[in-house]
Amino acid sequence: MAHRKSPARLAKDARAAHFRALSARQAAVHALPWDAAAALELALVGRVVLPSSPDYDQARQESNPAFQSYPQLIVYCVCENDVLECLAVARRYQLWVAVRCGGHSTGGYSVNNGMVVDLSEMRGVVLDRATQRVHVLPGTDFDRFNGAMNGTGWHVPTGACGSVCVGGFVQGGGYGYTSRAFGIQSDLVESFRVALADGRIVTASATENPLLWWAMRGGTGGNFGVLLQVTYRMVPLDQVWAWAIGWPATSAAQVFSMLQSRYMRTGAPDALGYMMNLGILNGQPVYMAQGMFCGTAEAGMQALAPLLALPGAQLLCSNTGSYPAMNVWLEDHPYTLPDALPDGICETKACGYIARPLTQADWQSIVDYFATSPNPWSLAYLEPYGGAINRYPVEASAFVHRDVDADLVVDVFWRNAEERVQMEAWLDRFMQLVQPFLNGHVYQNYPDSRLQDFTHAYWGPAYLQLQQAKAAYDPGNFFCFQQSIALPRGQAGAPA
Hints:
The chain is α+β, with helices and mostly antiparallel strands. The protein folds into three domains: about 5-120, Uridine Diphospho-n-acetylenolpyruvylglucosamine Reductase, domain 2; about 125-235, Uridine Diphospho-n-acetylenolpyruvylglucosamine Reductase, domain 3, CATH 3.30.465; about 240-435, Vanillyl-alcohol Oxidase, Chain A, domain 3, CATH 3.40.462. About 30% of the residues lie in helices and about 20% in strands. It has a seven-stranded antiparallel sheet with strand order 15-12-14-13-17-18-16, with helices on both faces. Helix 1 packs antiparallel against helix 2, helix 5 (about 140-150) runs antiparallel to helix 11 (about 325-330) and helix 9 (about 250-260) crosses helix 12. The termini are far apart.
């Protein structure tokens, strides 16, 4: 029988030959010789993208074009061995490694100027109904994850944005519409499968490498190793009721006050999850809550009755279906915020946790300031906590943001340097206005490169234990970035 190479193998041979040919005309790819790049290409199931590759500019780009990095190479991994090959090359040539799944890091930490290990093609979901577990690969986005769970009667909390991938999301905690009912996503992690810097693959669970398991549930991706697979405990969820309520500006402060007193840390049933949005539609500020109720529409309406009784309240939309279907449906209903956002626009985000009561006058000051936004794309929103999030023992994982009412998040958008200065100044004044109401902590899945004391903001009292995990599993500080966990002082690889 004749031996024929597959089209994929022929393409791989061509890329490797191209890399070797470049060695005769150009210097090495910084620290990486051309022959090494060719050898890596041939060793992979996936592929290598270099600055000379035609798709380099597309491959290096994060979801937010505000961040522009120029890696020496980007490696699209398809299987575990691809990851190990990358780590071996990075160790040999002392390349700075960034791990990327969906490329949604709000601090731009998914890409660097060294090697990007891209896991977006490591996708897959396997349900084990007998054990009530689901095994998921790190590059699986929520559209695929939710879709694979659809119609099964089982559920794992995911975020509202379908293009976000499991790998980064779960290591930062992972908040979504059903988190008040079931916990943040990391609370449901049974185990991780992780590639360490030295080339070993380990399992992290409550009984095997428990310190790593603890650290990777909130310690943020890219700190300890490369996540290869995560296993979750599934929870039963048949259907949800999706809804949205709008209020006029005259009622907005009253709405916020009621939400905080009755629909966050206390008061509301766990089954009720939502986001409260301040946005701009057709040039006018709008105040709209949208969310899900894990149950019937009738029970959900009963839970929302006090909010619907406020002056000017309007039920904007209502629908019942599976969680995956309703998660997609809420992206467009009742309308999209920010409204008419231009393609390719840049974003700056800031957030903080509300952990003390605000008066109605305090909320009014926030509403009034939001209305001064210089452009029509600004967005502020509350992600309410309470329920299962707050009941989970704070010491049981590295996610410490438990005893809070809500996460207040503000997004601004800009098209050029002049708009950036204007919008970030407006954002800074917003955060100064609300600073007295915040507890000083920041959700680590919304990293802010401008934070000074980021270790306290993201991890608070958990940081010292996270450093112990770093020392145990990455003693050479192989995995590092601008806001990564540092080794304990005095340890090799740590700053003096």
